[in-house]
């Protein structure tokens, strides 16, 4: 079993398993960096779905580009944000085919090509970002990422949490019982819908682009997202409560196509280091943004921040229900995650 090279503080560890495995399977000191050897620059595409002012873009994708190009190893990165290169499923397929080099994806979306990886988005799987880091550094975490690479042909360069997800609503949600009868918008991926069922919510699938209007018109009673997304979409304008349930880490993986094999050793190290820096930067940016946003909302009158939430009751119910619902490798991954909880 491969071991990680270093520990990351308050962030998910760089997934060293696929990087080392690729080097063993064809990467070398000479590598495939012919462009660099000829004095030319090799351009990599980096795609994601986030707005330019969100942490995943500003402190993630932009930092990767800046760090890689500052290393001066014959690599440049062209960023295509806000789903310019397609939705999640389209971009995953493009990474697998090599049409997109690097992408930032939610774990649940990646479950479409390797189901167990979606468990990283299971409700109450992780206690916090430090717990995510411990799991990713564990043998079980390394094995999960390696299996994903073998199954999907997609490498993982790093992982971060872009904050915990919370419910918004027009009535306070303080316990699992409060969800009864509410129509709550969830993303349509299997893991999110399983989360909804485990928590006792009545899930309604609504496209993210239609979320504001659906809440405004009362088509759904509430929704769940991290604070960065809630702020970006101005949901405080169409909801009365932000309920701090912290029920799921919004986990992103930085994935790469087999083009990794075209990079020489120096380029691989520069890209790995750039992603490592971005992992830390995103974590710090999210924490700062959340603190500032919550303080602003608590002082303002747009809506009420409900911090009187029985998180223990939510977690106990949800974990028990997920252990019953998950099967096979997905259940093993979930149990391994919970096993690294302090």
UniProtKB/TrEMBL annotation:
Q: Name one GO cellular component term.
A: outer membrane-bounded periplasmic space
- In the UniProt record, the signal sequence range is 1-29
A Pfam family this protein belongs to?
DctP
Can you cite a GO biological process for this protein? transmembrane transport
- Upper taxonomic classification of the species? Bacteria, Bacillati, Actinomycetota, Actinomycetes, Micrococcales
Q: Which residues cross the membrane?
A: none
| Entry's family note | Belongs to the bacterial solute-binding protein 7 family.
Q: What is this protein called?
A: Tripartite ATP-independent transporter DctP family solute receptor
- Could you tell me the keywords of this UniProt record? Receptor, Signal, Transport
Do the record's keywords include Transport? Answer: yes
State the NCBIfam families in the record.
dctP (TIGR00787), TRAP_S1 (NF037995)
| Keyword match Transport | yes
């Amino acid at each position: 079993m491969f071991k990680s090279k270093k520990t990351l503080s308050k962030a998910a560890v760089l997934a060293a398993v696929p990087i080392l495995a690729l080097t063993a399977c064809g990467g070398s000191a000479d590598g495939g960096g012919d462009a660099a050897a000829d004095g030319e620059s090799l351009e990599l595409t980096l795609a994601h779905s986030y707005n330019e002012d969100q942490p995943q873009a500003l402190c993630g994708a932009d930092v990767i580009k800046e760090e890689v190009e500052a290393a001066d190893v014959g690599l440049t990165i062209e960023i295509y944000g806000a789903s310019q290169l397609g939705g999640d499923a389209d971009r995953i397929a493009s990474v697998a085919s090599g049409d997109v080099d690097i992408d930032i994806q939610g774990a649940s979306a990646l479950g479409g090509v390797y189901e167990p990886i979606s468990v990283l988005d299971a409700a109450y799987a992780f206690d916090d970002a430090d717990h995510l880091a411990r799991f990713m550094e564990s043998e079980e975490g390394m094995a999960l990422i390696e299996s994903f690479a073998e199954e999907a042909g997609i490498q993982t360069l790093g992982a971060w949490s872009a904050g915990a997800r919370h419910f918004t609503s027009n009535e306070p949600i303080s316990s699992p019982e409060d969800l009864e009868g509410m129509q709550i918008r969830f993303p349509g991926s299997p893991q999110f819908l399983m989360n909804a069922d485990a928590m006792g919510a009545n899930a309604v699938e609504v496209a993210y682009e239609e979320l504001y209007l659906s809440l405004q018109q009362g088509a759904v009673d509430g929704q769940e997202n991290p604070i960065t997304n809630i702020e970006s979409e101005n949901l405080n304008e169409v909801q009365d409560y932000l309920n701090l349930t912290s029920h799921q880490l919004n986990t992103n993986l930085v994935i790469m196509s087999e083009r990794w094999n075209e990079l020489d050793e120096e380029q691989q190290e520069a890209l790995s280091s750039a992603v490592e820096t971005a992992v830390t930067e995103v974590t710090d940016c999210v924490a700062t943004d959340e603190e500032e946003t919550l303080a602003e909302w608590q002082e303002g009158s747009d809506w009420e921040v409900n911090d009187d939430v029985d998180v223990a009751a939510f977690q106990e119910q949800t974990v028990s229900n997920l252990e019953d619902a998950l099967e096979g490798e997905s259940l093993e991954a979930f149990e391994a995650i919970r096993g690294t909880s302090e």
